[in-house]
Protein: Large ribosomal subunit protein uL23
Organism: Enorma phocaeensis
Amino acid sequence: MTAHEIIIRPIVSERSFSFMEENKYTFEVARNANKYQIKDAIEELFGVHVVRVNTLNVKPKKKRVRYVAGYTRQWKKAVVTIAEGESIEIYGNQA
């Protein structure tokens, strides 16, 4: 798997934005990727040193649209801690 196949997209929410102050960045990753692959992909794509990778599987939630019941999709989230003094540009002109 290539780095672009492993890292799908950054998760930008209020909680993940507050994690950025602690050098923690949140990404949606491929469900079959392990922590070592995620670490190598982040280091290759963004040119930073990864200290720690925490992963979790996000379970599907039951949703209903009118009369049709279904589930949201299942996906995998990774919280990546990078070395002190480094940063990842999620937005184009992040301070």
In short: Strands lie at 7-10, 24-29, 50-58, 62-65, 68-71, 75-82. The CA atoms of residues 13 and 26 lie 9 Å apart.
